[in-house]
Amino acid sequence: MTLMFKNILTFFMVAIAALGTYAQDDDAITFEMKLSKDKLGINERLRVDFTMNKDGDNFTPPDFEGFRVLMGPSQSISSSWINGVRSYSKTYSYTLAPTARGEFTIKQATIVIDGKVYKSLPRKVEVTAAVDKPSDQMTIDDVADEGLHLVAEVSKTNPYLNEAISVVYKLYVAPSISVSNYQPLDNPKYNNFWSQDIPVRRLSAENGTYKGKPYRYVVLKRVVLYPQKSGKLEIEPLSLDVTVDVPTTKRDFFGGRIYSQTNKTVSAGRRTINVKPLPEKNKPANYGGAVGNFDFSVSTSKTTLNASESLQAIVEVSGKGNLKLFQLPEPDLPGSLEVYDPEFSENVRTTLSGSQGKVSNSYTIVPSFKGKYPIPSITFSYFDPSSETYKTLSSDEIIINVKEGPVNSAVANLPGNAGAKRVVTTGDQFNFIKLKPDLRAIGTNYFFGSTRFYLWLLLPLLLIPVAIALGKKREAIASDVVGNRVRRANKLARKYLSKAKKELGDKEGFYIALEKALHNYLKAKLKIETSEFSKDKIASLLAEKQVDQGTSDGFIALLKNCEMARYSPFSDVQMQQDYDKASEVISQLDKQL
């Protein structure tokens, strides 16, 4: 039995080895040349790697015309097993120095693998004049500058008026460095644009390319813009203060590379958007500013009812475009219908391609008389940027049939309406009047001389000491100047922070409300518009008003937290601390201002 088990085990081991050998032989063999750069100064160095995924013999390098070999060939081998699959790599490396300026070609290298000759592809290299700072002599700041880029990617730079465009801010980081922290320095103000932020729920790094080179990038901010005027409009840049970890040539005791840290300021740069005006040719007379691709409908909750009953008439526009930026057309209803102000409803979501969903007005209509009432056809016009044409949609006419109810006398007396029914009165019109009241006598009850009479007589005398005590308390409160200031300050703080308190737990809503509360407080106290001021301007303004440094720093720190919250995760504990701090800072400011 043991012998049989050994034979079966040996069979399976041989089969697995055969399958592994077959799979390895079946893999595609690669042999390629990699360059550290394809353009360099004559005073820089070039690294050339020849890499293969299977070991070979008789490696023959090219002659490296135009270059001098400083080091090489050095060999490195990497082999690993992952999930039962073997990964193998062998590399021959050279370090070269250019001998002249110009364009040179590094020719093919050859190697023999499994009896076959494999050749690498030739690569061209451009050698320019000497650079001020060769790559092998670059400082930490130079490496950070070269490997860190903030880019604002605009979906369209020449949109029509009120056509959606998206702006995505990406931070590109070279593989050789890493980012440990960042702080926004200046957020763009989208003047002459209607803007809608799309929150970035989680920051995650992805692989990409920047100017043809491999980079990692993270999306920091996304916003959808609708231009509100034609011409050349500028998008202000987003600026960040970034902490960068740059590897050095030094290593620690265990052989690990030592990193050095530096802070860099990066900016996305200004972007210019050339906004085209909407064409005047063929513009409909009833055009109300809608831009996009829409459907239009008018519907009612019922078409048959009795007088004094109500129905709903709904005017709805759905589709994709500037749904929040135009007015819905109004129905032209007969004067004999009682129509209430419409109730507006919207169900719109915003993505990078723009806003989409539907908006509607719901009219409550109550007919007073019997008859048939038409809701005439309504037209809705919009501009379609994809076809660059105006389009007009029309609704169907709807007939409201009121079956039961009084007849409108103005209609009944018109010529041709002689056959209309008249309203006939009956003997029941006044049946609500009681002809036999059934009155009863009320018992005698004298007030003078009663217990209640004497209580009301003595009440003013009892209230005199109470009034004296209250007067003294009011005088004491009025004389307490410091206490009154504190009470007024706390009341003012609660007034401006009430909205922020309701949003506790919702990071985005809380910090938007908190920032508005801080600006509205300064606006109320100083009678100026502070929302357009920078934090430095606000700090200098508080200094002019002789606000102490600690209170001013606390106010500016809260504004910074409001900005940081848009890009960084904040806990409920942090939000509660910021709310308490804001109450304290507003109270202190109110006493000092």
UniProtKB/TrEMBL annotation:
InterPro entries xref list: BatD
Domain of life of the organism encoding this protein: Bacteria
Membrane as UniProt keyword: yes
Keywords recorded for this protein, A-Z: Membrane, Signal, Transmembrane, Transmembrane helix
Keyword set includes Oxidoreductase: no
Signal peptide: 1-23
Segments passing through the bilayer: 453-471
Pfam families the UniProt entry points to: BatD
PANTHER family assigned: BATD, PROTEIN BATD-RELATED
Protein name: Oxygen tolerance
Organism ancestry: Bacteria, Pseudomonadati, Bacteroidota, Flavobacteriia, Flavobacteriales
